[in-house]
Amino acid sequence: MTTLSLRALVVLLIAGSLVGCDLLSIDDEANPNGPALEDVLNNPSRDNILAVAAGVEASSRVDIDLYLVNVGVIGREYWRTSSADPRFTGDLLGKASSILDANTFYTTRPWNARYRTIRNANILLQLADLNASADGERLTEAEADYVRGFAKTWQAYQYLLNLNLTFDNGLRFISPGEDAAGPVLSYGESLGQIAALLNEADGDLDGGDAFFGITDVAFANRALAARVAAYQGNFTEVLSILDSAFDVDGIGGAGLTEGAFHVFSTGSGDITNPFFLAPSSDVSDAILAHPSYAADITETDGRLDKVRLRTNGDGEPATATFDGLSTQFGFFVYKSNVDGIPVARNAELVLLRAEARAQTGDLAGAIADLNTIRTAAGLGDYTGEASQSAVIDEMLRQRRYELYGEGHRWVDVRRYDRLGTLPIDREGDDVWDRFPIPATENVGS
To answer: Which of 151, 156, 382, 424 measures 20 to 30 Å from 84, CA to CA?
Structure first.
């Protein structure tokens, strides 16, 4: 993803200064590190809009690592081991009598971070509407439409991440231009709201003029729309979105890795990838690959490089053990502290089409798409049974390995009612199907 000028991170001004006692209330507090909210709204100039857009994108990265820990640990992709906080291998894995806590950091921080970004995007929508009264250089109406599409796309993405956690506990929505959150909506209702927001944003982007450099927002929008349609079980809509927005037939090889990403750098004022830890890190602070990843993978599958064998000082394989959990592999999806974390990428588009084709009876087309993924991984063509159930099994297998460490597996096995297939690592552990809504929301769950 193309980054905006990092000087514009002044809008973490807004990401930070708008956090009051009530998560969903906007407090216009003074901020010594950037312009006050009132000043920004009183001068909706091109520069101020650019700054707020940068803040929306930047704030969407906050606590993305905790989101990935949550979904990946419960999905048995890896373990986050920490001597400083045993809840990663306790609560998240359901150890003994542990349950998911509605009032602790792994629940509240990702939720709060996503709503901060949603509120920042609401400010961006206000600025787009106020642009005509700017003192400085103003946007054209087409540019203002693009700003609206960008803001709504990022809001939909944030809502979806929180809904992935809370699932049937539902979600609250904030109307654009308003501060109060609505009632908690069901999972299905929430998906419908997110889909509608993405479609509205797509209309804005279609008539808009991309003036500030984030040229892959349209990609993210339509990819997320296809993902949401799959979550809804509307596979005809998945095919329609993919056919109208992408050349899926032209995707293959290295192109599978392209897409929209959260970007990181070591530059002044920026942050590095918060989900990167060296695969050889001491178990007191590490991300350890679940042993089933390497155990279940085909020997010739090139995606084995997403984990790395841990070794001792003599170069011999070494088993890492923590809190009753043991593996020989470290997590190695992100190779450095500046690797991007995908919002969506081309490989997911191919897999979504394979899923939708399988679900709508086009098994030959689904197998062709799965072979695109298999070929890139160094595997031969699929030779299994050409039944719908077998092809769906293969689709889920390819999603497991292709999208490993990107936040999908727990959601996938849940939506296919296969949580019971996830490994139980210690006697008495549990596999959760949802997080509670934070206790601070006072809604129950």
So the answer is: 424
Q: pLDDT tens digits, residue range 54-91?
A: 999 999 999 999 999 999 999 999 999 999 999 999 99
Does residue 295 surpass a pLDDT of 50?
yes
* 3-class SS of residue 203: helix
Handedness of CA 395, 366, 374, 303 (dihedral sign): negative
* Cα–Cα dist 128/139, whole Å: 8
Residue 138 sits at φ, ψ, to 5 deg, of -100, 165
- Rounded to whole angstroms, what are the CA distances from 41 to 9, 46, 90, 125, 325? 17, 12, 45, 11, 52
- Percent of the chain scoring above 90 in pLDDT: 79
Strand partners, 327: 320
Write the single-letter amino acid at 158: Q
347 pLDDT higher than 60: yes
Q: Which residue has the tokens 């809001």?
A: 155
Integer Cα distance of 71 and 405 in angstroms: 9
Between CA 316 and CA 312 the distance in angstroms is 5
- Distance CA(339)–CA(260), nearest Å, equals 13
> Is 338:264 a contact under the CB 8 Å cutoff?
yes
Distances (CA, A) of 284 to 71, 104, 153, 260, 291: 21, 21, 38, 33, 18
> Taking the model in full, what pTM does it have?
0.92
Rounded to whole angstroms, the Cα distance separating 371 from 355 reads 13
What contacts 286, CB < 8 A, 6 or more positions away?
80, 81, 277, 320, 322, 330
Please count the CA atoms within 13 angstroms of the CA of 212 that sit on its side-chain side. Answer: 30
Long-range contacts from 421-426, C-beta under 8 angstroms, 24+ separation: 422/75, 422/76, 423/76, 423/290, 423/292, 425/76, 425/93, 425/324, 425/325, 426/93, 426/95, 426/324, 426/325
3-state class percentages of the chain: helix first, strand second, coil last, to nearest 5: 50, 10, 40
User: Cα–Cα–Cα angle for 108, 118, 336, nearest 5°?
Assistant: 70
> What CA dihedral angle connects 123, 129, 130 and 131, to 10 degrees?
110
Q: Which of 360, 303, 321, 406 is nearest to 67 (CA)?
A: 406
Evaluate whether 310 touches 320 at the Cβ level (below 8 Å).
yes
Contact 241, 220 (CB under 8 A): no
Which pair of structure tokens corresponds to residue 221? 């929008």
